[in-house]
Design goal:
Layout: H1 2-19, H2 29-33, H3 80-84, E1 92-101, E2 107-109, E3 114-119, H4 122-133, E4 150-153, E5 159-165, E6 168-178, E7 188-198, E8 203-205, E9 208-211
Parallel strand pairs: 1-8, 1-9
Antiparallel strand pairs: 1-2, 1-5, 3-4, 3-6, 6-7
Length: about 210
Protein backbone atom coordinates (compact mmCIF):
# COMPACT_ATOMS: atom_id res chain seq x y z
CA UNK A 1 0.00 0.00 0.00
CA UNK A 2 2.83 2.37 0.87
CA UNK A 3 4.48 1.71 -2.50
CA UNK A 4 1.24 2.49 -4.39
CA UNK A 5 0.82 5.85 -2.59
CA UNK A 6 4.46 6.74 -3.26
CA UNK A 7 4.12 5.96 -6.96
CA UNK A 8 0.95 8.09 -7.19
CA UNK A 9 2.70 11.01 -5.47
CA UNK A 10 5.68 10.82 -7.81
CA UNK A 11 3.36 10.67 -10.84
CA UNK A 12 1.49 13.82 -9.71
CA UNK A 13 4.76 15.68 -9.08
CA UNK A 14 6.04 14.76 -12.55
CA UNK A 15 2.81 16.01 -14.20
CA UNK A 16 3.06 19.30 -12.29
CA UNK A 17 6.66 19.87 -13.37
CA UNK A 18 5.90 19.28 -17.07
CA UNK A 19 2.67 21.26 -17.20
CA UNK A 20 3.91 24.11 -15.03
CA UNK A 21 1.64 26.57 -13.23
CA UNK A 22 0.77 28.83 -16.15
CA UNK A 23 -2.80 30.13 -16.03
CA UNK A 24 -4.89 29.63 -19.16
CA UNK A 25 -6.02 32.66 -21.13
CA UNK A 26 -2.95 34.82 -20.54
CA UNK A 27 -1.25 36.39 -23.55
CA UNK A 28 1.77 38.43 -24.49
CA UNK A 29 0.70 42.07 -24.89
CA UNK A 30 3.39 42.70 -27.52
CA UNK A 31 1.92 40.08 -29.84
CA UNK A 32 -1.50 41.74 -29.76
CA UNK A 33 -0.46 45.37 -30.14
CA UNK A 34 2.05 44.91 -32.96
CA UNK A 35 5.58 46.13 -33.54
CA UNK A 36 4.63 49.62 -34.73
CA UNK A 37 2.16 50.41 -31.95
CA UNK A 38 2.89 53.19 -29.47
CA UNK A 39 -0.16 52.40 -27.30
CA UNK A 40 1.94 51.07 -24.43
CA UNK A 41 3.96 54.29 -24.23
CA UNK A 42 1.11 56.73 -24.95
CA UNK A 43 -0.31 59.05 -22.31
CA UNK A 44 -2.71 61.95 -22.55
CA UNK A 45 0.24 64.35 -22.68
CA UNK A 46 1.88 62.44 -25.56
CA UNK A 47 -1.16 62.27 -27.83
CA UNK A 48 -1.67 65.05 -30.34
CA UNK A 49 -5.02 66.09 -28.92
CA UNK A 50 -5.29 68.80 -31.58
CA UNK A 51 -7.28 66.13 -33.39
CA UNK A 52 -9.92 66.71 -30.76
CA UNK A 53 -9.45 70.25 -29.42
CA UNK A 54 -7.29 72.59 -31.52
CA UNK A 55 -8.68 71.02 -34.70
CA UNK A 56 -5.87 71.98 -37.06
CA UNK A 57 -7.50 70.78 -40.25
CA UNK A 58 -5.82 71.44 -43.57
CA UNK A 59 -8.02 74.46 -44.32
CA UNK A 60 -7.17 75.96 -40.92
CA UNK A 61 -3.42 75.79 -41.49
CA UNK A 62 -3.72 79.10 -43.35
CA UNK A 63 -5.43 80.79 -40.40
CA UNK A 64 -3.80 82.55 -37.47
CA UNK A 65 -4.84 81.72 -33.92
CA UNK A 66 -5.51 85.36 -33.00
CA UNK A 67 -9.04 85.85 -31.74
CA UNK A 68 -9.97 82.24 -32.51
CA UNK A 69 -10.83 81.17 -28.95
CA UNK A 70 -14.10 83.10 -28.90
CA UNK A 71 -15.33 81.39 -32.08
CA UNK A 72 -15.00 77.76 -31.01
CA UNK A 73 -18.09 75.57 -31.21
CA UNK A 74 -19.37 74.24 -27.92
CA UNK A 75 -19.29 70.47 -27.64
CA UNK A 76 -22.29 68.47 -26.55
CA UNK A 77 -22.25 66.95 -23.07
CA UNK A 78 -20.07 63.84 -22.89
CA UNK A 79 -22.53 60.91 -23.28
CA UNK A 80 -21.41 58.63 -20.45
CA UNK A 81 -24.15 56.08 -21.15
CA UNK A 82 -23.05 55.66 -24.78
CA UNK A 83 -19.43 55.05 -23.86
CA UNK A 84 -20.22 52.78 -20.92
CA UNK A 85 -21.86 50.32 -23.35
CA UNK A 86 -18.85 50.13 -25.66
CA UNK A 87 -16.90 46.83 -25.53
CA UNK A 88 -13.42 47.31 -24.11
CA UNK A 89 -11.74 44.18 -25.51
CA UNK A 90 -11.83 42.48 -28.89
CA UNK A 91 -10.06 40.34 -31.46
CA UNK A 92 -10.47 42.40 -34.62
CA UNK A 93 -7.67 43.77 -36.80
CA UNK A 94 -7.64 46.93 -38.91
CA UNK A 95 -4.73 47.45 -41.28
CA UNK A 96 -3.86 49.25 -44.47
CA UNK A 97 -1.85 52.24 -45.69
CA UNK A 98 -2.06 55.96 -45.16
CA UNK A 99 -0.98 58.20 -48.04
CA UNK A 100 -1.61 61.37 -50.03
CA UNK A 101 -2.31 61.38 -53.78
CA UNK A 102 -0.49 64.20 -55.53
CA UNK A 103 -1.73 66.12 -58.57
CA UNK A 104 -0.44 63.34 -60.84
CA UNK A 105 -2.12 60.55 -58.87
CA UNK A 106 1.11 59.31 -57.32
CA UNK A 107 0.97 57.91 -53.78
CA UNK A 108 3.00 59.76 -51.16
CA UNK A 109 3.14 57.51 -48.08
CA UNK A 110 2.52 58.92 -44.63
CA UNK A 111 5.70 57.71 -42.96
CA UNK A 112 5.59 57.44 -39.14
CA UNK A 113 2.10 58.92 -39.09
CA UNK A 114 0.03 58.60 -35.92
CA UNK A 115 -3.40 57.09 -36.34
CA UNK A 116 -6.43 56.86 -34.07
CA UNK A 117 -9.55 54.74 -33.84
CA UNK A 118 -12.34 56.82 -32.31
CA UNK A 119 -15.63 54.98 -31.57
CA UNK A 120 -18.59 56.54 -33.37
CA UNK A 121 -20.93 58.12 -30.85
CA UNK A 122 -22.99 61.29 -30.82
CA UNK A 123 -19.94 62.96 -29.28
CA UNK A 124 -17.45 61.93 -31.96
CA UNK A 125 -20.02 62.46 -34.70
CA UNK A 126 -20.30 66.11 -33.70
CA UNK A 127 -16.51 66.40 -34.02
CA UNK A 128 -16.54 64.72 -37.43
CA UNK A 129 -19.27 66.97 -38.87
CA UNK A 130 -18.25 70.25 -37.30
CA UNK A 131 -14.46 69.96 -37.37
CA UNK A 132 -13.40 67.49 -40.04
CA UNK A 133 -16.14 68.15 -42.62
CA UNK A 134 -16.88 71.83 -42.00
CA UNK A 135 -13.45 72.90 -40.70
CA UNK A 136 -14.72 74.62 -37.56
CA UNK A 137 -12.78 74.93 -34.34
CA UNK A 138 -14.30 73.33 -31.26
CA UNK A 139 -13.87 73.62 -27.53
CA UNK A 140 -11.50 71.18 -25.84
CA UNK A 141 -12.68 67.58 -25.70
CA UNK A 142 -13.68 65.92 -22.45
CA UNK A 143 -10.55 64.12 -21.14
CA UNK A 144 -12.61 60.95 -20.63
CA UNK A 145 -12.60 60.52 -24.41
CA UNK A 146 -8.92 59.51 -24.28
CA UNK A 147 -9.85 56.28 -22.48
CA UNK A 148 -11.77 55.04 -25.52
CA UNK A 149 -9.26 55.85 -28.27
CA UNK A 150 -6.89 53.30 -29.81
CA UNK A 151 -3.58 54.31 -31.30
CA UNK A 152 -0.91 53.09 -33.64
CA UNK A 153 1.74 54.49 -35.97
CA UNK A 154 2.58 53.74 -39.58
CA UNK A 155 5.96 52.49 -40.77
CA UNK A 156 8.21 54.27 -43.26
CA UNK A 157 6.02 53.04 -46.12
CA UNK A 158 2.80 54.29 -44.56
CA UNK A 159 1.55 50.83 -43.55
CA UNK A 160 -0.26 50.53 -40.23
CA UNK A 161 -2.11 47.97 -38.09
CA UNK A 162 -4.45 47.98 -35.10
CA UNK A 163 -4.77 44.73 -33.15
CA UNK A 164 -7.27 43.54 -30.55
CA UNK A 165 -9.98 45.91 -31.76
CA UNK A 166 -13.45 45.45 -30.19
CA UNK A 167 -16.46 45.10 -32.48
CA UNK A 168 -18.01 48.41 -33.44
CA UNK A 169 -18.05 51.43 -35.74
CA UNK A 170 -15.07 53.77 -35.65
CA UNK A 171 -13.68 56.92 -37.17
CA UNK A 172 -10.21 56.06 -38.48
CA UNK A 173 -8.08 59.22 -38.25
CA UNK A 174 -4.52 59.93 -39.27
CA UNK A 175 -2.31 62.92 -40.00
CA UNK A 176 0.28 63.07 -42.77
CA UNK A 177 3.04 65.67 -42.87
CA UNK A 178 3.61 66.76 -46.46
CA UNK A 179 5.37 69.68 -48.13
CA UNK A 180 6.93 70.17 -51.58
CA UNK A 181 6.29 66.54 -52.55
CA UNK A 182 2.56 67.31 -52.28
CA UNK A 183 2.86 70.58 -54.17
CA UNK A 184 2.80 72.86 -51.11
CA UNK A 185 5.29 75.67 -50.51
CA UNK A 186 5.67 74.63 -46.87
CA UNK A 187 5.14 71.61 -44.63
CA UNK A 188 1.51 70.94 -43.76
CA UNK A 189 -0.27 68.57 -41.41
CA UNK A 190 -2.95 66.93 -43.52
CA UNK A 191 -5.61 65.13 -41.54
CA UNK A 192 -7.53 62.25 -43.08
CA UNK A 193 -10.58 60.57 -41.58
CA UNK A 194 -12.95 57.84 -42.67
CA UNK A 195 -15.24 55.26 -41.08
CA UNK A 196 -14.55 51.58 -40.48
CA UNK A 197 -16.70 48.72 -39.15
CA UNK A 198 -15.17 45.86 -37.16
CA UNK A 199 -17.12 42.67 -36.39
CA UNK A 200 -15.73 39.87 -34.25
CA UNK A 201 -12.27 38.62 -35.19
CA UNK A 202 -12.34 39.78 -38.80
CA UNK A 203 -9.39 41.50 -40.46
CA UNK A 204 -10.43 44.78 -42.09
CA UNK A 205 -8.18 46.30 -44.74
CA UNK A 206 -8.73 50.05 -44.99
CA UNK A 207 -6.53 52.59 -46.73
CA UNK A 208 -6.61 56.14 -45.40
CA UNK A 209 -6.04 58.58 -48.22
CA UNK A 210 -6.99 61.90 -49.76
CA UNK A 211 -5.88 64.02 -52.68
CA UNK A 212 -3.51 66.95 -52.26
CA UNK A 213 -5.22 70.27 -52.89
Amino acid sequence: MFKIVTIMQMTLMTMFLFTGCTQPGLYDRQTTTGQNSWTDQASEDDVDMSDFNENMTESEMMMTEEGATSNKIERIKFPVSEYSHLPRTGKGTVNGSIYIRDLYGRKIPGASARLYLNPITSYSQQWYEESYVNGNKMQEADPRLFNYLRFTASDKNGKYSFYGVPSGNYYLIGTVKCGEECGYDRLKNIRIATTVLVIGNQVVNKDLTRAAE
